Amino acid sequence: MKIAPWIFLALALSCQQQPAGPWKLDRAATMLDEGQSFQLNLKGIPPRKLEWFSGDEAVAQVNKRGEVLALSAGDVWIHVFDGRMYIFGSRDNYDGYGPDGRREWCSDNYHVLWSDDLLHWTDAGEALNLRDIPEEVKGGGIRLWAPDVFQDPQTGKFHMVTCTNNDKVFILDADSPEGPFTNARTVTLNGEELGHIDPGILVDDDGKVYLALPKFIVAQLDPADYSRILPETVRDLTPVMPKDNDPFEGPSLRKRGDTYYYIYIQNTGRIVDTGWIPTRMAYLTAKEPLGPYTYQGLIVTNHEYPNTGNVHGSFECWDGQWVVQYHRSVPGLALTRVACLDPLEFNEDGTIREVKMSSSGIRGAFRPGDKIQASAAVEYSLGRAGAEMVELKRKEYPVIFFQADGQWTGYRYVDCSQAPATLTVCVKSGQPGGQLELRKGAPDGPVMATMEIPDTGWKWKEQTVPLQVDASGKEAVYLVAKTAPFRVKYFRFE
């Protein structure tokens, strides 16, 4: 799956001082959009001489006053190594346009992101660039597609298995999960190169390493250097997959307890009937890594989300909580995707409770005081055509443009346990008479607030109204344009 560098950017910046003094930074990390900036400050007695620096000037720059400017942040796997969560994924260029002017999924390099809390993320810098891959390995590929990474249980080294847009699969080595990854070599089966994409890896408890590939197999890798598939271990899993939703891409392998999970991306419908729309993350289970496997159903789907042409991801355990990772496109930018994390729950028999895409993500719910971007909507009255309701600006969050009476956007989830009393919405309009409703649970659910939208002179202005809440837990909420047109930038509860 491909992750966009555009929406979420995590920074970790530090400073050097001379001489030492009783002071510290006002934050350890933050999250920004491309083009956003903020001011770093010190708590305590500042040093007489201070030098600010950024770990990667291509990602963020910081000037001598401590002002930080975010420049860039892209199919993603997530993994936990040594108690730290890592994201290994391809990176989308803005709307797919690379430096060469071509429009395509992904870029020609990888950055590794890591987090100690799943909320604040650090970009560890470039881990691999396609220019460093020998031509005989990349075979004319110009973009790097979905990778996966594993740690050798014997040597402790890290290995990345990845591919190009020319369906060339190869493996590389590194001393750290952050890279750099080097020594690229082709992965082979019976001495032949693989015409596959999207490799996924599992290191089992006994140290054996298994590879998942479309179309659609699982097999063990030769532990000599992991660049050869052991042919006697290859298992074809397509016979157990549904015939009405063709398998398409993005397999990965996970183990939970004594159950193995083969995760893959289905097409929505049969490709011969609907064309390719691989927007359903499905899974199989087995009691052995090579099967036999049984089809179980869906984990998450983004089929109704605007512009989305695919989904890709997997799941991982973090501090006792399982989380699912997937992506969706920026409405209006079909080739720019963002990585998403949501909580994942299992039934007693090991099957998965299907996840609904959320706006709040791994946090579970927005709380009073949180700014909720209007573009964080996960449901649109226009469904897959909902991009028509989105206005884009290169350096800012998208905004929602309610163009017709009755249009709505939906958000999951808001924490109502603290009984918020007011709703504040940042709106823009060029005429009076607009009216916005906040509804609970569904677009036609109970009304929680009604707001009159004035003529703001085409300037963004906050409007606040009382809020009626008869809920005590997590709720989905909907912004409904009773009378349009007007635009919404963000909203929050107090």
Distance between the termini: 37 Å
In CATH, the homologous superfamily of the largest domain goes by the name Glycosyl hydrolase domain, family 43
Please tell me the overall pLDDT: 88
> How is the main sheet built?
6 strands, antiparallel
- If classified by CATH, what would the architecture of the largest domain be? 5 Propeller
Task: Tell me the Rg in angstroms.
Answer: 24 Å
Tell me the number of structural domains: 3
Shape: globular
CATH topology of the largest domain: Tachylectin-2, Chain A
Assembly state: single chain
Report the β-strand fraction as a percent range.
over 45%
How many helical stretches? 2
Sheet/helix structural class = mainly beta
CATH class of the largest domain: Mainly Beta
Count of beta strands:
43
Helix content: under 10%
Low-confidence stretches: 1-23, 44-49
Give a description of the structure.
There is one protein chain. This protein is an all-beta fold and 494 residues long. It folds into 3 domains: 2-70, no CATH class; 76-357, Tachylectin-2, Chain A (5 Propeller), CATH 2.115.10.20; 372-493, Sandwich (Jelly Rolls), CATH 2.60.120. The protein has 2 helices and 43 strands. The strands form 12 sheets. Strands 33, 35, 36, 38, 41 and 43 form a 6-stranded antiparallel β-sheet that branches. Strands 1, 11, 12, 13 and 14 form a 5-stranded mixed β-sheet that branches. A 5-stranded antiparallel β-sheet has the order 34-37-42-39-40, with no helix packed on it. The relative contact order is 0.09.
